[in-house]
Amino acid sequence: MGKIPANPPKSVPNRKENQSLFSKIRKEYVSLTFAKSLIFDPARLPLISILILAAELVLNVFVVQNVRYTEIDWKAYMQECDTGPLVYPAGFVYIYSALYFLTSHGTNIRLAQYVFVGLYLLQLVLVLRLYCKSRKIPPYVMAITIFTSYRIHSIYVLRLFNDPIAILFLYAALNAFIDGRWTLGSVMLSLGVSVKMNILLFAPAILLLYITNLGWLKTALQLTVCAMIQLILGAPFLLTHPWQYIKGSFDLSRVFEHKWTVNYRFLEPEIFESKAFHLALLGLHLTLLVVFASPCYKYFQNYCRLRHLEMMLLPQIEAQNRAEKEKEKKPKKSPNQALPASKGNKDEEKLTPDQEKFLKSFEKGIKKMSGKQQKVERAPEESPTPNSATSKFSIHFDRSTQLALLPIFLSNFIGIVCARSLHYQFYVWYFHSLPYLTWYTEYTNSLKFLLLFLLEFCWNTYPSTALSSLVLHTCHLILLVGIGRKMFRRIPDLAQFNKTE
User: Main location per UniProt (predicted)?
Assistant: First the structure.
């Protein structure tokens, strides 16, 4: 007798499953709703960031290949690294000395430009990572802002200034701080200062960030790390010509030329260069820092509390989600067959009613502080289906990054508002924080874009005029007032959330 042939594979169910999967993908991703979310939903920024980086790579290569390089400070940088004298800190000397040898004593400009293309893309990665975590800014805002700034592309790949390198270290430090890697952040911050002193404009807010998150003792340790980096980098110069090095590299009394100023073209040179004017601006700077210190401190306190909540609640939320997932995998049993869950396992995997109640109040607090609702998603109570979501709770804790970024960006912005003089390359000091600061205000989107457009206009007006300088100050003032109006409202105290329900 012949063997009974095996049953042929059933292809119909597989075909139906494939069709169902394809239909689900098409319904979710090939739709107007998904397309709109790519434009307007901050949660989609990680995907759009990849497209932004790819487009920026192409754009910058095109600029390098087709737009004429303009010599401004590159030769001076190369000479300083070769023969001196030093007018920048030691970190600058080491970095540009490496570029000096890499570019055949500074003669291979095209190679240097491509190095700065890489630095620019790395800068964008660090910036976009912070924005992705905060979920504050819609993707279209970032795309428009990044793509349309002629001045920023010029500063990076057509001028080769040292300002972008200093800012790169600053954003590396901010990413490290947000990740809780405090010592690495301090090292990056100090490296930024070792390239250019403007990074110190961020220092007041970062000091408050240290104190609220680490306490006084650990803050002192981090400040020691910052100081040690400066001493190590500057050792060859401090051991030979200490006074000349300090005076040349950290000269706070340096007088800028009126012909290069972007922000005070409407002043007479005598007033612009007067010490009384400089002292008045310093007084205004310190006053604004004191005025904004209290709300910034509260923002940092709430940021610290949210991070502690994350450490406490996230393991329990993940355990709850695992329990829900396991339930879906297990076959259904009749009531007589069902076994009672052990008490210990239940206590470990399920959130208590008080914790669920707290999550609701947590959601309200985030909504109050960010102006947008932070979703605390719950799965439906009915029995799960194969296509149902497996997570019972989901909280984007990284959104608390908003509470840390705002005071840090604001501290730098106040310094720029009160600067004695702004040169064209200084635009990079705050360009990447402008979308965040602008969208923090409650102005209409039209006014927000108008502010960004006018700021770009001012920084692209060469040579600067009395009108462009006045417009720049007006935009700064409007932006500062908009930030202040929102910041000085009552800030919710996260420590009290669980008492409000």
Answer: endoplasmic reticulum
